[in-house]
Every structure is written in C-alpha cells, then in structure tokens.
Amino acid sequence: MALDKKNILLVDGLHRSGLAVAAALKDAGDFTIDVACTHRGFFDTARRYAYFRLIDRVDFTGVSFSDRTFPDRILDIAARRNTDIILPTGSSAIPISLIKPKLESLCTVLVEDYEKLLLFHDKSLTLGMVRDLDIPHPATWLPENREEAETLADEISYPVVIKARKSTAAEGVWYAKDKSELIRLYNKATNWKKNGDGMIRDSSKPMIQEYISGELHDVAAFCIKGDMKLGLTQKRLMTTPLSGGMGIVNVTTKNEQLLHYAEKIIDRVQWNGVMLMDFIIDNRSGVPKLLEVNPRFWGTTWLTIKAGYNYPLYLVQNADGLKIDYPSDYEAGLYCRWPIRELYTIFDKPVSVKVALDRFGGFISRFKLKKCIYQLS
Q1: pTM
Q2: What is the C-alpha separation between 7 and 80, in angstroms, rounded?
C-alpha cells in the first residue's frame, strides 16, 4: 500500500540534518515539505533558495525554542499549513517533544515523549542508565558545586573533560590539563551562555570525565517500540573541532559490538524513532566506551540514507500504519564529506604553515576517494 500525499512540517529543517530529511522524503514520495525556522538569518534565507526543489514553503517563528510563545507559533504554522506530520530535526526535537501533547491535537508528531528524550539529552541521566546496563563508559564525576569540584581536583588524574549536562552539536565541552585549569574552566562552564535556556543548554552543574584518546564511532539506529529494526555504524575520520565534535568526514563500517550495546539501550527505554549513539575506542585497551546519545536526527543523516537506510521514510510509513520494506543491509565503506566545513576547520585556529599545508594536502587527497558523497549545505 502506497503512502497518501502528506504535508510534512520539518522544524529547524534548513540545517544539515533537516535538508537530508527533506531530500530523502522528496525522493521517496508525494510529500509537501514545509519548514519552520526560528529566525530569518542570512544563511537560512540562502538555503531556502538554494534548496527550493526540496522545500515547498518556509515559515519563520521569529522566536527561539525557549520563548514562551514558541508553542503557539508552531501550532499556528501547523494549522495554516494543514500539517499532517511534524518531524523535528536537530535540537528542535527537544522543544517539540515538550509540546507534543498540544501538537497531537492537530497532527502526528514524530518524536519520542519528552520524559524519554530527556534521559539522553541530560548526559548525567544517560550515565546512570549505561552503568546499570554494564556498558563501558569514561570515568565520570558529578560535582554539585564549586567546592566539590575543588575537592575532586586533588583526587583525579589529568587530562579531563568538562561537559555541560545538556548541550548540542559539540557545544559545552572544555579540556583541562591540571588542577588549576580544571577549577578555572569549571567556573567558566557554570556561566556558559548564562547556563543557556535550561531546556537545550544547561551547564549549571557540569560533569567531569576522564579524557580518552581514540577513534570516534557512531551507531545510527531506527527503532519501533524498543526493537532496533536497523542499525548502521560509522567512523568519524575528521571532526569539527579537530579535538572532537561532530563528524565532517565519515565512513560507514560494520561493528557488531557497538550494535549490541545500542540494542541494550534501546530495549531498556523502549525507544521509538531514531537516535545516534557516540562511542570512542579507547587507545589504551581497545574497549569501546559510550560518550553520549543523541535522540534525534544527526548531522550525517545523509550518509545513513545514501548507504541504504531511509530512516525518514520509515518513520512516516510506520506512523501511517504501513508495512515497511526494510533493506537487508547497507553499504559499508561509503564516505561522506562536508568540504566547506573541512576548510573552515583546517584554518579555524592559528597554525604553522607546515601544519596548514599538511592539512590542506589531506583535504585535496580525499577527493580521490572512489565511494564518497558530498554535503554542500
């Protein structure tokens, strides 16, 4: 049975993951793709016109996710556009899940309930879960205030990582190489962006974790009622920033151990929808350790789709009660690059001429990759 024509509203849909979702849905069915964005910035406007074949209509809410009028703005857009399905991308999954009960009076909302989503958006809650599931993770401390952090600073080994408990897109991360730097950065973290809005960003009680050197890997999963129907693993070959963050050069892999850990997490919370789990392979032991879980579409969604797993389409099909024709496998060894961001990252901080030339040489040599897709958004 084919899908009926649908009006789909992508919230925050002009960003990298949103454009990937729009492209996947446009290629797969007769959908009208509407987008809601918070502000009419230069790049939002530019993307609107650059990707006009993917996006039918754009509405700008004019307020941030945390503004008290945001729910009413989204409700108004959904009503005016006769929206059938709301699908949040990126960090918009958090505020949309919070107002999901209101939105469901108008349409289907393809995001998990806020109570479940918060288990992963708040890294301290994730940590408690993975400890219970016996999944390896970095040693972590949760000081409640500066005094506890100063006491802890005398007892732990360095370097360490300081993380906001709630953040997105590699924000809210600091590195300390000794006690004095830990205390200084802990104080800085507690005032980061004035602690954000409390919903998407909150560093009022930052976490402290051991620093682990190793390869970054991800599991991109599609789930229905706690059953991981599909899972894809990938390796981050280059991140922004280079010290660790979102992947800008990635390759699909096959890592059964990471998929096993992912299944345990998904089963525990009975997750419905998509999520990305971030792991690091500890150089000291070779053990994969869970860093965090992103309960929403991710920056490399386009790689997942092009490798053979059209998660956005499966979400819509499942919501419509249709039988999903799952692929038997995905393509491993497929690379994905974001070349504009690569260049930005290479020259982001002052570096020597030699280092800059070496990095630029790597940038050029990656154009020789035979199985590679590109993100130009």
Answers
A1: 0.92
A2: 11
Amino acid (1-letter code) at residue 50: A
For residues 229, 246, 33, 42, the Cα torsion angle rounded to the nearest 10 degrees is 180
CA pair distance 187, 239, nearest whole angstrom: 26
Q: What is the pLDDT of residues 154-184, one digit of tens each?
A: 999 999 999 988 887 667 889 999 999 999 9
Q: What share of the chain is helix, strand, coil (3-state, %, to 5)?
A: 35, 25, 35
- CA angle, residues 144, 148, 149, in degrees to nearest 5: 95
- Burial (0-12, 13-18, 19+ Cβ within 10 Å), 64: middle
For the chain, list the domains and their CATH numbers.
Answer: 6-111 (3.40.50.720), 139-210 (3.30.1490.20), 214-374 (3.30.470.20)
Residues in CB range of 375: below 8 A, 6 or more apart: 16, 20, 302, 336, 337, 338
Nearest 10 degrees: CA dihedral of 9, 25, 101, 295? -120
**Pairing of the two strands 85-88 and 6-11:** parallel
63-103 tens-digit pLDDT: 888 888 989 999 999 999 999 999 999 888 999 999 999 99
Strands of the chain, DSSP E: 6-11, 31-37, 57-60, 85-88, 108-109, 140-141, 160-163, 173-176, 207-210, 214-224, 227-240, 246-253, 273-282, 288-294, 335-337, 372-374
